[in-house]
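Title: Prediction job returns without error message
Component: structure pipeline
Severity: low
Priority: P3
Assignee: unassigned

Description:
Job completed but the reporter wants confirmation the result is attached to the right record. Sequence as submitted:
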Amino acid sequence: MVRGSGNVYRDFGRPNADLEQARAITAAKIIHVLDERKLSTRDAEKLTGVSYSEFSRIRSTQLGRFTLDRMIAILGKLDEDVRCPLPSRRASTARLSFHAQPHPRLSVGICGRPEC
């Protein structure tokens, strides 16, 4: 048994593994927001101005057409604040991770509790 690095894309030798993982994590967050708010792709389009077909591609993890900044912009249009702590180049095992938080204008977080 071999222990993974925490990034499946890196484990399979994919180029731009950290970017691919970041896009996958961002897509998962977008899907989570849509599910928590019970938004269809059409409802999400009305709310954000982003085409329903783009939300459909994200839901089916067809992420090839999306840049990370585009996906972060979509999260922003869903009133989600995004923090992206970047690893130091000196870190021996640099990993990219980030956390999206509900926008401060919302009184209740996406999980239904103010602390989300």
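Comment from assignee: result matches the submitted record. The chain has a mean pLDDT of 80.
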